[in-house]
Amino acid sequence: PNNDECPSEHQIHVAMAALRWAGQKRLGSLLDGALPATPDAYFERLGQRTELVFEVLQQWDAAQVDVVLSPAVALPAYLHGESANLPDASADSQLYNLLGFPAGTVPFTRIAAGEESDRPDSKDPADRAARRIEQGSAGLPVGVQVAARPWREDLVLAAMAALERHARDAAHAPHTPVEPPVAPS
To answer: What is the pLDDT of residues 76-116, one digit of tens each?
Structure first.
């Protein structure tokens, strides 16, 4: 779009304030990234991303970390149409996309009865959507995300295989009801 079609910085700030006033704090804060950018600002952000990659790698070095396990997403499987109300529910997985680190997800356990939700009532549509999704979610699978340093996909795959082997024998483990065919050797 040309500059006449792009919202101005003032319009974006007004929209952010309106969303926050309406109780949509998460969605309002996401608009911060929608502010108009110049080529200089773009290259500045690329530099900041590179600095972040090196900072994370230095932290991993100091902690002697090669692989990180984290939640795949903050919620169980979304109800149809709810993803629009959950702008930050996949923030953990988005971090590794931003960093350019290899990552994968493996089903590991299930939500047990009584673990569904303890969220209080809220005006924020994201909180309300999360509460609706969590209620009645007992039995749904929970995934674990595995991330590693750049170019270490081998570690991601090895960790995912180990997690899958460990979970496979547990009574609460998610499983595929049909075994896939095995190729003849």
So the answer is: 777 777 777 776 777 777 889 889 999 999 988 888 888 88
The residue with tokens 């009865």 is 113
Packed helices 39-62 and 91-99: angle between N→C axes, nearest 10 degrees: 100
Q: Kindly state the average pLDDT of the residues 157-175.
A: 83
N-terminal to C-terminal alpha carbon distance within the chain: 56
Task: Report the DSSP beta bridge partners of residue 147.
Answer: 68, 103
Q: Helices marked H in 7-62 — which ranges?
A: 9-21, 25-30, 39-62
Phi, psi (deg, nearest 5) at residue 21: -60, -35
Gap between the Cα atoms of 157 and 163, Å rounded: 10
CA dist 111 and 99 (Å) reads 30
d(CA 119, CA 128): 9
Residue 118 corresponds to which tokens in the numbers above? 């303890």
Alpha-carbon 40 to chain mean position = 29
